[in-house]
């Protein structure tokens, strides 16, 4: 069962590109460019509810009232893998600010360990997209959301690529107010907390640190 606050995006192009990411034969360069393209494809859906404001312009034929984005957009990349999603989204929202949150999963406990956090001034009034391709146990995103809320952010949308049912449920239990978008809901976690069938270690595949 998918929690009510979760949208699983379904689209042939998304499925196609996900298959490239999953394939163990995909090298680092193709993995990076495909994650970039996939993130670009997600933007249309994740920004669906951004507020607009009216502006008065003139077309070549007549004056008219049109709409432009009213929101200040903030992309927050969970390091390292979230970095792979930033540029694809920036292509469509070039005015977005970018924050970074450094977390890694302790290999034994699977608990997140924080090592860096840099947010732009005024982050608390922005529309934030929290970017992490992998939602496994959910521990990292649960931690990230608690941290961002403690800094005053309230308008946060989680954007991921692959989610495990266990992690999605845990995230919903911890932060029922948060909307989650994921490109795909996978089957389950393995005994090491990896998503199955998954794509392996996203950060390692992105940066060649396998
Ligand atoms: C990965 C991934 C998520 C986290 C997901 O990061 O990018 O941040 O694991 O797992 P969770 O839902 O169980 O918390 P990792 O800890 O491997 O760090 P890295 O990106 O720096 O390699
Ligand atoms: N982090 C990853 O990169 N992959 C997983 O499957 C789980 C956590």
Describe the structure.
This protein is α/β, with parallel strands linked by helices and 210 residues long. The protein has a single domain, classed as Rossmann fold (3-Layer(aba) Sandwich). It has helices spanning 12-22, 28-46, 83-92, 139-150, 165-174, 202-207, and strands at residues 6-8, 52-58, 63-69, 73-79, 97-105, 112-118, 127-131, 134-135, 156-163, 179-185, 188-189, 195-196. The strands form three sheets. Strands 1, 4, 5, 6, 7, 8, 9 and 10 form an eight-stranded mixed sheet that branches. Strand 5 and strand 6 form a beta hairpin. The longest helix has 19 residues, at 28-46. The two termini are 33 Å apart. The model has no long low-confidence stretch (mean pLDDT 97). The site of uracil has 9 residues, from helix 6. Uracil binds at residues 81, 134, 136, 194-195, 198, 201-203.
Tags for this model:
single chain, alpha/beta, 8-stranded mixed β-sheet, two-stranded antiparallel sheet, 6 helices, 32% helix
Q: What's the short story on this structure?
A:
With 210 residues, this protein is an alpha/beta fold.
Helices and strands in order:
Blueprint lengths: L5 E3 L3 H11 L5 H19 L5 E7 L4 E7 L3 E7 L3 H10 L4 E9 L6 E7 L8 E5 L2 E2 L3 H12 L5 E8 L1 H10 L4 E7 L2 E2 L5 E2 L5 H6 L3
Parallel strand pairs: 1-10, 4-5, 4-7, 7-9, 8-9, 9-10
Antiparallel strand pairs: 2-3, 5-6, 11-12
Helix pairs in contact: 1-2, 2-3
Bound chemical compounds: 1-O-pyrophosphono-5-O-phosphono-alpha-D-ribofuranose, uracil
Q: What is the CATH fold-level name?
A: Rossmann fold
Q: Figure out the total of helices.
A: 6
Task: Count the domains.
Answer: 1
Structural class by sheet pairing and helices: alpha/beta
Please write the CATH class name: Alpha Beta
Tell me the fraction of residues in β-strands, as a range: 25-35%
Which spans of ≥5 residues are poorly predicted at pLDDT below 50?
Answer: none
Can you give the mean pLDDT? 97
- Percent helix: 25-40%
Biggest β-sheet strands, sense, barrel: 8 strands, mixed
Computed CA radius of gyration, to the nearest angstrom: 18 Å
Order of helices and strands: EHHEEEHEEEEHEHEEEH
Shape: globular
What is the total tally of β strands? 12
Distance between the termini: 33 Å
Task: Quickly give the CATH architecture.
Answer: 3-Layer(aba) Sandwich
């Amino acid at each position: 069962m998918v929690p009510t606050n979760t949208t699983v995006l379904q689209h042939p192009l998304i499925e196609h590109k996900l298959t490239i990411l999953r394939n163990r034969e995909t090298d680092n360069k193709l993995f990076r460019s495909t994650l970039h393209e996939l993130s670009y494809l997600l933007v249309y859906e994740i920004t669906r509810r951004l507020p607009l404001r009216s502006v008065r312009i003139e077309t070549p034929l007549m004056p008219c009232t049109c709409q432009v984005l009213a929101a200040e957009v903030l992309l927050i990349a969970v390091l390292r893998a979230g970095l792979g999603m930033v540029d694809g989204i920036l292509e469509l929202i070039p005015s977005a600010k970018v924050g970074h949150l450094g977390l890694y999963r302790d290999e034994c406990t699977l608990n997140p360990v924080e090592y860096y956090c840099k947010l732009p001034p005024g982050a608390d009034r922005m529309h934030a997209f929290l970017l992490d391709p992998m939602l496994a146990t959910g521990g990292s995103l649960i931690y990230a959301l608690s941290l961002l809320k403690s800094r005053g952010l309230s308008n946060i949308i989680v954007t991921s690529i692959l989610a495990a049912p266990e992690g999605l449920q845990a995230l919903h239990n911890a932060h029922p107010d948060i909307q989650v978008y994921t490109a795909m809901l996978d089957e389950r976690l393995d005994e090491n907390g990896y998503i199955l069938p998954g794509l392996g270690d996203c950060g390692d595949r992105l940066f060649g640190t396998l």
